[in-house]
Design brief:
The protein has helices at residues 9-18, 58-63, 83-94, 102-107, 112-123, 127-144, 149-155, 161-172, 176-179, 217-228, 238-251, 268-277, 288-294, 301-309, 336-349, and strands spanning 28-31, 36-39, 52-55, 67-68, 183-190, 197-201, 206-211, 230-234, 286-287, 322-323. With 361 residues, it is α/β, with parallel strands linked by helices. The strands form three sheets. The chain has a four-stranded mixed β-sheet with strand order 3-1-2-4. A four-stranded mixed β-sheet has the order 7-6-5-8, sandwiched between helices. The chain has a two-stranded parallel ribbon with strand order 9-10. Helix 6 (127-144) runs antiparallel to helix 7 (149-155), helix 12 (268-277) crosses helix 14 (301-309) and helix 13 (288-294) packs across helix 14 (301-309). The longest helix is centred in the middle third of the chain and has 18 residues, at 127-144. The radius of gyration is 23 Å and the shape is elongated. The termini are far apart.
C-alpha cells in the first residue's frame, strides 16, 4: 500500500517550479510534449503546467510511456542506489531492446530474488518489468515498419494482446492496428549550451527543431501531426544524429554550415522567406524590411515578419538574424536572451563565413 498520497496538481507544479528537494523520490513529473519524466528538482527549464503529469513512482512513469531524463537521472536516487540496481539499470540503458530473463541475471552472478527486492525497494518495480516497459517503447518502431501486430506484441514481451494494446494506447494514443497505417515521425531531445532542443524527423528529413520552452511548441506539434496526417513517437532517426553533430560544431565555433535535409511545412510565400533567411551570412543581421526587399516584396514587412516567426527549424533556418530597423532585437520564439546569445556567438566565430544559398532538401 502506498504510504504517500500525491498532493494536488497545483501544489506539485509549485514544487516543480521551486525545485523542492523534499519531494525527491516521492513524486515525479512526466512532460507530455517530450515523453520524458524527471525529478521535481531537475535542472532543465520547467515545462508549462498544461504539459505536466505527476506520478508517485518510477513504475507509474514507465507504465505511462515516459522515458527517464538523462539530466536528472530519476532512476538513480541520490545516495540510495545499490550496486545491483546501478549495474542492471546501466545495462538496460545500454541495450533497451534486450529481452531479459532470470537466467541472464543469474549469469551475471546475481540472485534473482535479491534483484527483485532491491528494485522493488528502490524503484517500486521489478527489473524484468522495467525491461519489458522499455521494450514497449521500441514496439512503435516495429509497427511503423509494417511488422504484424502479434509479432510486435510478442517482441515487446506481452503474452496478452489486450494488455499490449492498452499499453501502446497509453504510449501513442491509438490502437496498434490503426497505428500501422500511419506515417511515423520520431522525436528526441538534443542538448545545447543554451537549452534543450526538441528534434522531430522521419528516416530522411528533419521536420522540426525547437527550444523546449517555446510558447507555441504544443500548437506546432499538433499542426505537424494534423497537416501530415502523421503520428509522433519518441525515438531516434538518422537526421537527428546528423543535426546533433552539426549543432555541436556550431556551438563549438567550428562551423556554421548545416546540411541535414529539411522537410518544410509552409506556404510558397513562407518558404520563400525561409529561403532568403539562409542567405544571411552568420555574423550579420538584416531588418524585416531588408528581408522583404530581398524577395521583391518591400511593402510586405508584416507578412515577412509572420513568416519569420513561423519558422520551425531554429538556428538552422536563422530567423534570429533578423532584427528591427532601429536595431532592436524584437521577438524571438526561443527568448530574446537566446537571440542575443546566438547573434553575438556568430559575430565572434563566423563573421568571415558565407551562408548557404538554398534550403537543403
Amino acid at each position: 500500500m502506498m504510504l504517500f498520497s500525491l498532493p494536488d496538481h497545483d501544489t506539485l507544479y509549485a514544487a516543480l517550479e521551486a525545485r523542492d528537494p523534499s519531494y525527491d523520490g516521492l513524486a515525479y513529473v512526466g512532460v507530455t510534449t517530450t515523453g520524458i519524466f524527471c525529478r521535481l528538482t531537475c535542472p532543465a527549464r520547467n515545462p508549462k503546467r498544461e504539459n505536466t503529469q505527476f506520478y508517485a513512482t518510477v513504475a507509474e512513469c514507465l507504465e505511462a510511456g515516459f522515458r527517464p531524463c538523462k539530466r536528472c537521472k530519476p532512476l538513480a536516487r541520490t545516495g540510495e542506489m545499490s550496486d545491483i540496481v546501478k549495474t542492471l539499470t546501466e545495462a538496460l540503458e545500454a541495450d533497451p531492446a534486450r529481452r531479459w530473463r532470470e537466467d541472464d541475471i543469474i549469469a551475471m552472478g546475481l540472485d534473482p530474488s535479491t534483484v527483485r527486492r532491491a528494485f522493488k525497494r528502490h524503484l517500486g518495480i521489478t527489473f524484468l518489468d522495467m525491461a519489458r516497459l522499455r521494450r514497449l517503447g521500441l514496439a512503435a518502431d516495429q509497427l511503423a515498419a509494417g511488422v504484424p501486430v502479434i509479432e510486435a506484441q510478442l517482441e515487446a514481451g506481452f503474452d496478452s494482446g489486450s494488455g499490449f494494446r492498452a499499453a501502446v494506447n497509453r504510449l501513442i494514443g491509438e490502437a496498434p492496428k490503426s497505428a500501422r497505417t500511419r506515417v511515423w515521425l520520431k522525436a528526441d531531445w538534443i542538448e545545447t549550451p543554451i537549452g534543450a532542443l526538441l528534434a522531430i524527423a522521419d528516416n530522411t528529413h528533419l521536420h522540426l527543431l525547437e527550444f523546449n520552452d517555446r510558447k507555441g511548441l504544443p500548437g506546432e506539434l499538433k499542426r505537424l501531426q494534423a497537416d501530415g496526417r502523421t503520428a509522433i513517437g519518441f525515438g531516434r532517426a538518422a537526421p537527428m544524429d546528423r543535426i546533433e553533430a552539426e549543432l555541436e560544431a556550431y556551438f563549438e565555433g567550428r562551423s556554421a554550415r548545416f546540411e541535414t535535409p529539411l522537410a518544410l511545412h509552409g506556404s510558397a510565400f513562407t518558404r520563400s522567406v525561409w529561403d532568403q533567411l539562409l542567405t544571411i551570412p552568420p555574423g550579420e543581421t538584416w531588418s524585416y524590411l531588408d528581408l522583404a526587399r530581398s524577395i521583391d516584396r518591400p511593402s510586405a514587412t508584416r507578412a515577412v515578419a509572420r513568416a519569420n516567426g513561423a519558422n520551425q527549424i531554429a538556428i538552422v533556418i536563422p530567423c534570429h538574424r533578423v532584427i528591427g530597423s532601429d536595431g532592436s532585437l524584437t521577438g524571438y520564439g526561443g527568448g530574446l536572451w537566446r537571440k542575443k546569445w546566438l547573434i553575438e556567438h556568430e559575430k565572434r566565430n563566423y563573421s568571415a563565413q558565407p551562408a548557404p544559398a538554398a534550403i537543403p532538401a
